[in-house]
Design brief:
The chain is an all-alpha fold. The protein has helices spanning 14-51, 54-57, 65-98, 105-127, 129-136, 138-151, 156-171. It is built from 7 helices and no strands. Keywords: Membrane, Transmembrane, Transmembrane helix.
Length: 187
C-alpha cells in the first residue's frame, strides 16, 4: 500500500445481502398494495357521491368537475405506478431466487436484462404525470394553454374572441370582406 491511500473495505455478509434483497422486495410489494387499497376506497367514495341525487344530498355538490378530473388523473397515475412497481418487484424476486446460485451465461443475461428493464420501469411513473394530465384533464389543458399564451404575451381572451369570430363566420358561411381596388391611377 502506498502511504496516504486508505481503502475502506467491509465484508458483505450473507445476512446483509438477504436483508437488502428482502426489504426491497417487501417495499416493492407493500407500497403498490397500499396504493391499490386507498384507490379502491377513494373510487367507492366517488361513486357514492355521484350516485346520490342532488335533492337527497340537501347541500351543494361537494366536488366539482375539476375535482373529478383530478381524481381520474390520479387513478391513472396510480395504475401506472402499480404496474411498473409490480414488474420491478418481479425482477427483484427473480434476482433474489438466483442470487445464491452459480449462474450460467443465459441466466446472467436474463438477470441483467431484468435489472436494466426494471431500472427503466422504475422511472416511468415519474415521467408520465404531465402527459396524463394533458390527455385526461380539460381544465389542465386550458391552464397550460393560458400559461403558454401568457408567456408569449398574448391574452387568452382575445384568442378566444378570435376563435369564436372564426367559428361564427364558418357557421354563417360568410367569407371575410376583402377590398380589391379596381381603379387604375396613372401618374
Amino acid at each position: 500500500m502506498y502511504p496516504g491511500v486508505f481503502i475502506c473495505y467491509y465484508d458483505l455478509s450473507q445476512y446483509y445481502e438477504s436483508f437488502v434483497l428482502y426489504s426491497t422486495l417487501i417495499m416493492t410489494v407493500s407500497i403498490p398494495l397500499v396504493l391499490i387499497i386507498l384507490s379502491t376506497i377513494a373510487f367507492k367514495n366517488v361513486r357514492r357521491i355521484r350516485a346520490i341525487p342532488r335533492q337527497e344530498r340537501r347541500q351543494l355538490r361537494t366536488m366539482n368537475k375539476k375535482d373529478f378530473q383530478l381524481l381520474r388523473c390520479l387513478y391513472i397515475q396510480n395504475i401506472i405506478y402499480v404496474v411498473c412497481s409490480l414488474l420491478v418487484g418481479a425482477s427483484v424476486c427473480y434476482s433474489t431466487t438466483l442470487h445464491m446460485e452459480a449462474l450460467t451465461l443465459r441466466e446472467q443475461a436474463i438477470n441483467n436484462f431484468l435489472n436494466n428493464f426494471g431500472a427503466i420501469l422504475h422511472y416511468i411513473p415519474y415521467c408520465t404525470s404531465f402527459f396524463i394530465f394533458i390527455c385526461v384533464s380539460k381544465a389542465f389543458r386550458l391552464e397550460v394553454k393560458r400559461l403558454i399564451f401568457k408567456m408569449v404575451r398574448k391574452d387568452l381572451t382575445t384568442v378566444r374572441e378570435e376563435e369564436n369570430n372564426q367559428q361564427e363566420a364558418v357557421k354563417d358561411n360568410i367569407e371575410p370582406n376583402h377590398v380589391i381596388s379596381t381603379i387604375n391611377i396613372k401618374a
